[in-house]
């Protein structure tokens, strides 16, 4: 009886390792944690650097200037005076001489001009010049993650083709856990920068391996679109929770508290991966994937990657600049700096789940085209806001539109590989992740410098116009042709349709030989 009970967990594990849904859960949780860590620092870093560097420096200067008066000005509290009247000694206060001495000293000094600056509105931070410089520093810190990820992604794509997706996925968890702990205990800009760059390495392993794994287990195009929508829902939920969670925890508990909570959740994700994914198992792809440089020469993949890059560049530019702009113009408290991103996160969560299914029916190219246009219009409306409530509309439209683009473009990347290349997905999702990273690298690094040079409103105008101008290029994804007649060209009257290629793969025996193509043509 006990032996049968002991076998139940092992049966559950065996069944779980063959379940596509549990693989989807693992990828969902990994993307959730990655993007919670991505956005939890957004409201924390600007105020933390302002508190530790600007206010800390000013308090030390103020304490150095407040020195005790020189000994000449300090009169003894009591002095003795001998009375010749009755031969007694009387103790009297030494106030008069001290005051007279002080008055003589003050009169000899030249008058000092007033040093206090005009009073700022209540709640507004001082140090306008420091905040202007901080735009650039915070932008570079946020961009460091994406820059590192940009460099590492192609190597991870090649690695997944050689050893499979399981081991890179677990490596990503380990690096992410270390990065989270480093964020919790870093007290200087340098260590925060290193922690952010380390997060980029872990994120590269997790995202490329996770999305490639999903594409490999969901071979049907319609099912793949739904799975990608759910996985991107994890990304959206991480973005949704991250900024508000970070601002509230930093305001009321402390800087380290949100990162320690994320480290605990990362441990749970690692335990889940150990049970489900068997990260010690090496499972290389049975066929050789299309090289990255060949995929980069495909114009349709470049159009899809560009849509991912520019649509996400808008929110990437907002992350370092919007909190500082709110501190300067709205005098916002700490908790509002993260809450400003809440409407965008909620609408992104709705958009990715809604259009994961709907985009397949109305045409993914059309969803992307409309989404990029709405992204541009929303960004143009952000500088018109006078308070945090005025940001609700533009940020909601921005999040919903980016959800439309992401949930359409991620399945299209896998579809284009099926249609025009070899159906191995590590490299194409490395390119998709590179597109994300370019948006999140170029956006913060250039956004801070642009804000310092010409102001926050002009930054929003520039990136908004770029998105609107790029949107018509999505029309070229309406009906991409198959390459080398591998698959019949789609009907011109229909958008990208639901296609399943699992039946075609059963026509060939693996491993492939030199005569496989000839045999496949004979069968057709």
Describe this structure in words.
The structure is a single chain. The model is unreliable at about 70-80, about 80-85, about 90-120, about 485-515 and about 515-520 (pLDDT under 50). The protein has one domain (about 20-55, about 125-485): Growth Hormone, Chain: A (Up-down Bundle). It has helices spanning about 1-15, 20-40, 45-65, 95-110, 130-165, 165-185, 190-215, 220-250, 255-275, 290-295, 300-330, 335-340, 340-360, 365-380, 390-420, 425-455, 455-470, 500-505, 515-524; strands at about 80-85, 90-95. It is built from 19 helices and two strands. Strand 1 and strand 2 (about 90-95) form a beta hairpin. The chain is globular. With about 525 residues, it is mostly helical. Helix content is about 70%, strand content about 0%. Helix 5 runs antiparallel to helix 11 and helix 5 (about 130-165) runs antiparallel to helix 16. It catalyses: dopamine(in) + 2 H(+)(out) = dopamine(out) + 2 H(+)(in); serotonin(in) + 2 H(+)(out) = serotonin(out) + 2 H(+)(in).
How is the topology of this model organized?
Blueprint: H1 2-17, H2 20-40, H3 44-65, E1 78-83, E2 88-93, H4 95-108, H5 128-163, H6 166-185, H7 189-217, H8 221-252, H9 256-276, H10 292-296, H11 299-329, H12 334-339, H13 342-362, H14 364-381, H15 392-420, H16 426-454, H17 456-470, H18 502-505, H19 516-523
Helix pairs in contact: 2-7, 2-8, 2-9, 3-5, 5-7, 5-11, 5-16, 6-7, 6-9, 7-16, 8-13, 8-15, 11-14, 11-15, 11-16, 11-17, 13-14, 13-15, 14-15, 14-17, 16-17
